[in-house]
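Bug report (template v2)

What were you trying to do?
Predict the complex of my protein with iron/sulfur cluster.

What happened?
Run completed; filing so the output is reviewed.

Input:
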Amino acid sequence: MITGSIFDIKEFAVHDGPGIRTTVFLKGCPLRCAWCHNPEGWSSEPQVISSSAGDRTVGQAVRADDLAELLNGQAPILKANEGGVTFSGGEPLMQGRFVVEVINRLEGVHVLLDTSGYADGREFCLVVEHCDLVHFDLKVMDPVLHQRLTGQDNAPILGNLHRLADLGVPYVIRVPLVPGITDTDANLAAIAEALQDLPGLIRVDLLTYNRAAGGKYRGMGMTFKPTWDETETVNANTAHFTDAGLKVSVHGLRMTEGH
Ligand code: SF4
């Protein structure tokens, strides 16, 4: 039986997709976004987080059938509230085969994949084909800036964006707005241009900056080093998207939401 590595399961989530959901946070991410608020999702291995309440270990191995059984136990309430299961992280596509094994065992539950889009194209398609909805992040369109801010090239992400549009699974594009970094008019205009005319796009969600982003770093022996002014109001300029004929909405970014 295939085993996965997860670091949290959030029940009764109302910001991780339609309805009331259970969100499974998978451990391991190939990106290192400078604004990441879930650094415990980076490594696939269990880690210790220290706080005033003491030390706790984040990350546990779980079998696909055990996780599916737990989620199926919640299925009646999820279905009754037009919700379902969200796979987030970290980057769930790092454990794509595990995610598919779990989905295959779910009993008619709506499945949402929350992804950075950074993954092998075949693995990406394999998982997306098993999902009902995808939340796909676009952060920075300039490839040099993307590499500097996330540690990875954005070419695989843009390739998967086009695969997603071809697969016929509906998707929402989510843009984390980091002041002076991702919220520039040039970046937002470039994202709108990339999305124009792509089939399957439901809407664009602009996620305003989470000022608590650095909260977990100290407890993990890491330092959060924003190069931007965290007190600055972000530029949530929706006009770039409406002018391109796209639906757009602005949301607050919460601790466990968005990449
Ligand atoms: S923000 Fe998301 S994609 Fe970026 S490092 Fe954190 S978990 Fe990974």
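What did the reviewer find?
The pocket of iron/sulfur cluster is lined by residues 29, 31-33, 36, 38, 41, 89-91, 116, 259 (CB under 6 Å). The helical segments are 64-80, 96-105, 121-128, 143-150, 155-167, 185-195, 239-242.
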